[in-house]
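Justification of resources, computational component.

The compute hours requested in this renewal are based largely on the per-chain cost of generating structure records like the one below. Each record pairs the submitted sequence with a full structure-token output. That output is archived, and it is also reused by downstream analysis tasks.
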Amino acid sequence: MPEAQQAGLARTPRTRARWLWDGPWALTGNLAKIRVLEDLIGEFPKGGPSGRARILDVGCAGPSPLNLWEPFFASPEAPPIEVQGVDVDAAGVEAVRRLARERGWPQVARLEVGSAYDLPRLFAPGTFDAVVSTQVLEHLARPEEFLRGAAEVTRPGGLCYVTFDSGHFPSHDAAWKRLARRLLVALGKERYHERGLTETEVERMARACGLSTVETRFYNLHDVKRIHNHGVSADRKNRLAEVWMELEDFLNDDRAFLERGRHWFAGIYIKLRKSESRP
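The structure output for this chain reads:
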């Protein structure tokens, strides 16, 4: 049972912001990421202690740069935030920078080229109200080192959100592909590292870094995700995602079901908090 559930903590109350679901943007097809957005709305409805909530996006580039943050940038109803980002892909970081200029999104404040291990080198201690890492952890050979750096650049009492591929979910990759990736990683090419993690592993590593688990949830029923991403028209995706979210939250609230059924979810969401007293 995840640490937060073992401690008897109720799940964080859902802030069902209609503007998030009803806007003209296409929400990501990863429910764990949407859960991050919903929680940020609840945690920072009026921004952070010093104005806009300062958020670091680790792994900010990718095939759909800034897709996660578009609702926050485009809606006047969104909480005031400032997003800084870091990614190992220099071309990807430049693409994010260019997109932010083209769309006129001043909330994108600073972008750096660097790895997930470089956070303490790139940012001052306690800089951020929240650090967000979506689908990065499973690609890191040293995830605890990353979590330690994330904790360092988070302010006392601030939050870290991680979403990642579940180690409970059976891999669909051919054996030869898994072997090839392991060989490439052994040769120093860490970008090929790919290993799903369990909530127990990540909670343990986070605890060692001064981060306590607030909430752990399991998301992305594989077949429903395929229907969402590939089976329905674009104008129906957000509505399907909302119904899908209700289903998965219903299942997450059933502890007996999770004990025997967490392997059906492809992803895991964990919300972590840094101690108020930790420097």
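Residues 181 and 187 are 10 Å apart (CA to CA). Residues 237-252 form the longest helix (16 residues).
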